[in-house]
UniProtKB/TrEMBL annotation:
Record has Oxidoreductase as a keyword: yes
Domain Ketoreductase: 6-194
Keywords recorded for this protein, A-Z: Oxidoreductase
Region of interest (Disordered), residue spans: 287-326
Similarity field: Belongs to the short-chain dehydrogenases/reductases (SDR) family.
Gene3D superfamilies with a match to the protein in the record: NAD(P)-binding Rossmann-like Domain
Lineage: Bacteria, Bacillati, Actinomycetota, Actinomycetes, Micrococcales
Compositionally skewed regions (Low complexity) per UniProt: 316-326
Name of the protein: SDR family oxidoreductase
SUPFAM superfamilies associated with the record: NAD(P)-binding Rossmann-fold domains (SSF51735)
């Protein structure tokens, strides 16, 4: 787990999850390039890492343009002599239902999340291949990209797209010894604090109150709960892990499955519309896939914060595999 001598870039690391990632990578020994669009946040992040005893430098620029990607990589190389790890975390939200979502709402989220991930990974991968010593690409997804979420057409699209790109990059970069993985975090951030359901748990945790329901049933914790996975995937210990989508939050870590066929059926000559109308329900009815994240009800009383009965079943009846959107 020793990252001494390694150099990492973390986009969107001025605060929140990105800052937690950057600080943990530095704590493990890596020198870190911090990135944010806000000078104050970037400077404060660098100061926090240096106060912890680490090394950091800031690049203040919006993620998306190729020019920013080039600046991030050149800053890492010019300042610290090399590059080993890229964490693409930068993102924005423009939430609204489909029929109210503007072109700008959609394009802004696509530009920062999807294009920003692509341009930064392309630049980093090009350098890492030339450096010839392998490397680590860690891209941040979301449960929304895995299951969908009401009011987040743009966000669901980009987060699903990021995981799709990661699987492709794992194939393309394998010969160069570069791994590519997606992390699916669930944690309290400024974004989740805008949702009253989650803010109640964030406020309770900030006040030092135990929140086992949030940590176990919702997999909802702090940014620091996620940072250990980032450091692990950046390390030599994860050299054989690539093309994976790993979820983490609160007390839980989980491996998301890749999309796969769950039921198949064959008919000589193929399937007409009439054939499908007659047989679709009998073939697929019991296997149709759910959408959205299960959201169990919080416990009714303070002395029952687990949200489960003695058998381990959620009292709400919701699947225990569900987590909150981040």
């Amino acid at each position: 787990m020793d990252l001494t001598g390694k150099v990492a870039i973390v986009t969107g690391s001025g605060r929140g999850l990105g800052l937690a990632y950057a600080r943990e990578l530095a704590r493990q020994g890596a020198s870190v390039v911090v990135n944010d669009v806000d000078h104050q946040h970037a400077d404060e992040a660098v100061a926090a890492i240096e106060t912890d005893g680490g090394k950091a430098v800031a690049v203040v620029a919006p993620v998306g343009p190729t020019e920013t990607a080039k600046k991030l990589v050149s800053t890492a190389v010019d300042t610290f002599g090399r590059l080993d790890v890229l964490v693409t975390n930068a993102g924005v939200l423009r939430d609204t239902v489909l029929w109210k979502m503007s072109d700008d709402d959609f394009d802004t989220v696509v530009d920062v999340h999807l294009r920003g991930t692509f341009t930064c990974v392309r630049e980093a991968a090009t350098y890492l291949r030339g450096q010839g010593e392998g490397g680590r690409i860690i891209c941040i997804g979301s449960p929304t990209g895995q299951r969908g979420n009401f009011g987040q057409t743009n966000y669901a699209a980009v987060k699903a797209g990021i995981v799709g790109m990661v699987r492709t990059w794992a194939l393309e970069l394998a010969r160069a010894g570069i791994t590519a993985n997606a992390v699916i975090p669930v944690a309290a951030t400024a974004m989740t604090d805008t949702v009253p359901f989650f803010k109640q748990f964030s406020d309770a945790a900030a006040n030092g109150e135990p929140v086992p329901f949030a940590r176990r049933v919702l997999s909802f914790g702090t940014p620091e709960d996620v940072s250990g996975l980032i450091a692990f995937l950046a390390s030599d210990a994860a050299s054989e892990v690539s093309g994976q989508a790993v979820g983490i939050g609160g007390d839980r870590v989980a491996l998301w499955s890749h999309p796969e066929e769950v039921v198949t059926a064959f008919r000589d000559g193929g399937w007409s519309a009439e054939d499908l109308a007659a047989d679709f329900d009998s073939i697929f009815g019991r296997s149709l896939q759910k959408v959205g994240q299960p959201m169990p009800e919080p416990p009714a009383t303070a002395d029952d914060e687990s949200g489960t009965d003695k058998s381990g079943t959620d009292k709400s009846g919701a699947a225990r595999s569900g987590g909150a959107s981040s």
